[in-house]
């Protein structure tokens, strides 16, 4: 049997979420599954928390106002969406854009871990406290943002969620300052 490409393996994980009827209550209120976007062989994976209204409508993570800011930051470090892989923990929009519930994150985590196993990124960038808490629950985003962490032979970079800059203008520069360290962190990873 021929070896499946990363994209084929990721497509199977996406199909499994639907087949396994993950979070049926969320699926009912969402327009569609928002799985991921970007390069299935990326060195960098960005993980947000859950799709918002624009993501739910378009089926692509990070396409609203926070997504535009995210794209600007990618451009600052010489990257485009096609160079990285972008996903969320929870793949359906929670009603009214509420935070994902602990059990929703728990039930989606094995699928996220499967995605990461396929891609094998050098760096996982967690965007916001929900994403961070899935991997490094003992850390507080306010204390560790912008500081790379090694856990189970994987490097994580906790960042504030880009949406934080939309609600709090003072956060914008902090988020940018943390984001632009990504190329130097990648260079240090063997």
Q: Describe it for me?
A:
The structure is a single chain. This protein is α/β, with parallel strands linked by helices and 190 residues long. The chain has one domain: 3-Layer(aba) Sandwich (Uracil-DNA Glycosylase, subunit E). Helices cover 46% and strands 14% of the residues. It is built from 10 helices and 6 strands. It has a 6-stranded mixed sheet, sandwiched between helices. Strand 5 and strand 6 form a beta hairpin. Helix 1 packs antiparallel against helix 5. The longest helix is centred in the middle third of the chain and has 18 residues. The protein is globular, with a radius of gyration of 16 Å. The mean pLDDT is 95.
Topology summary:
Elements (H helix, E strand, L loop, with lengths): L5 H14 L4 H6 L6 E3 L5 E5 L4 H6 L6 H12 L8 E4 L13 H18 L3 E5 L1 H7 L5 H4 L4 E3 L2 E6 L3 H5 L3 H9 L2 H7 L2
Parallel strand pairs: 2-3, 2-4, 4-6
Antiparallel strand pairs: 1-3, 5-6
Give the overall silhouette.
globular
What CATH architecture would you give? 3-Layer(aba) Sandwich
Any low-confidence stretches, pLDDT <50, length ≥5? none
Oligomer: single chain
Strands of the widest sheet, in order across it, are 1-3-2-4-6-5
Helix content: 40-55%
User: Structural class of the helices, strands and pairings?
Assistant: alpha/beta
Helical segment tally?
Answer: 10
CATH superfamily: Uracil-DNA glycosylase-like domain
Biggest sheet statistics: 6 strands, mixed
Number of domains: 1
Order of helices and strands: HHEEHHEHEHHEEHHH
Please state roughly what percent of the residues sit in beta strands, choosing from under 5%, 5-15%, 15-25%, 25-35%, 35-45% or over 45%.
Answer: 5-15%
Mean pLDDT: 95
CATH fold description:
Uracil-DNA Glycosylase, subunit E
Rg from C-alpha positions? 16 Å
CATH class annotation:
Alpha Beta
Termini separation? 32 Å
How many strands in all? 6
């Amino acid at each position: 049997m021929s070896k499946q490409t990363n994209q084929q393996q990721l497509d199977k994980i996406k199909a499994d979420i639907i087949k396994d009827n993950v979070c049926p209550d969320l699926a009912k209120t969402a327009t569609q599954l928002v799985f991921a976007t970007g390069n299935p062989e990326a060195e960098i994976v960005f993980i947000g928390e859950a799709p918002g209204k624009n993501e739910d409508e378009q089926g692509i993570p990070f396409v609203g106002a926070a997504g535009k800011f995210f794209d600007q930051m990618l451009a600052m470090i010489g990257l485009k969406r096609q160079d990285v892989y972008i996903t969320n923990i929870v793949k359906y929009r929670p009603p009214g854009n509420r935070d994902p519930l602990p059990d929703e994150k728990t039930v989606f985590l094995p699928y996220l871990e499967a995605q990461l196993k396929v891609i094998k990124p050098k760096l996982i960038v967690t965007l916001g406290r929900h994403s961070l808490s899935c991997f490094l629950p003992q850390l507080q985003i306010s204390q560790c943002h912008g500081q790379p962490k090694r856990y189970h032979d994987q490097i994580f970079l906790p960042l504030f969620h880009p949406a934080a800059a939309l609600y709090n203008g003072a956060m914008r520069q902090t988020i940018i300052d943390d984001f632009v360290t990504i190329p130097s962190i990648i260079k240090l990873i063997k």
